[in-house]
Amino acid sequence: MDKLSIIIQTGNWPEIIKPQVNLPKKSEKKVNALKSVCKNPLDFIEKFNPDFCAERYEIYNNETVALKSGMIKLSELKFAYEPDTAIDLISAWLVNASLYVRLEIDLHLIKDIARELYKEVFMFNIAEFNLFFSKLKRGHYGNLYGRFDGMTICNAAIEYRSKRGLILSKLPEEEQNKII
Predict the structure, then answer these.
(1) Is the whole model's pTM more than 0.90, yes or no?
(2) How many CB atoms lie within 10 A of CB 94?
(3) Please, which residues have CB within 8 angstroms of residue 158's CB and are 6 or more apart in sequence?
(4) Rg (CA), the chain
(5) How far is it, in rounded angstroms, from Cα 64 to Cα 52?
(6) CA distances from 16 to 5, 19, 164 (A)
(7) Distance between CA 23 and CA 171 in Å, rounded?
């Protein structure tokens, strides 16, 4: 077996070809500020629960204001804590939303739905994430009663993201670069 096949099978990448994932400079300040408030992933998930965020981020009550808020993005959480921190946060919010619509959701599926939803919302900052879930609960994306499932939620996220993209495309390039 050749050396490349062994590396691929074992995952033992030499340092020079290991995929590098570094914290973008513009994210460093947000990550450090967050870590000073929440020391570990569990602390973060407990403190950034839906009730706390609903109150704290209620001033970001439309897509434009939430987009421009400058809050930490879900994709940046892996730099502050662990790779699955955003997935765990989304899982907690999905459970909360299912309780809100009084629909039991299979707890075995929560993490799977959270992973798929993350693919649609990883670029959202916390204010946008909060606004998305607030709109989801209020029925902005249709009635969730009786159909709280992964596809319904991901489709709602795609709709939100589409509007987000339109808003972002209308901003000056300098402002876009601050957000992206």
Answers:
(1) no
(2) 24
(3) 120
(4) 18
(5) 21
(6) 17, 9, 38
(7) 25
Distance, in Å, from the CA atom of 39 to the CA atom of 127, rounded to the nearest integer, reads: 21
Query: How do residues 112-169 score in pLDDT, each as one tens digit?
Result: 999 999 999 999 999 999 999 999 999 898 887 667 788 999 999 999 999 999 999 9
- Phi-psi region at 12: left, alpha or beta (left = phi > 0; alpha = psi -120 to 50): beta
Instruction: Report angle CA 27, 159, 126 to the nearest 5 degrees.
Output: 30
Structure token digits, residue 48: 């950034």
Nearest alpha-carbon partner for 165 in 179, 145, 151: 179
Beta strands, E only, 16-173: none
**Rounded-to-integer distance, Cα 37 and Cα 107, Å:** 29
Residues 87, 74: Cα–Cα separation, whole Å:
9
Token pair of 7 as six digits: 């590396």
Asked if 79 contacts 112 with a C-beta cutoff of 8 angstroms, the reply is: no
**Residue bearing tokens 């339109």:** 166
C-alpha–C-alpha distance, residues 157 and 132, integer Å: 7
CB 67 within 8 A of CB 131: no
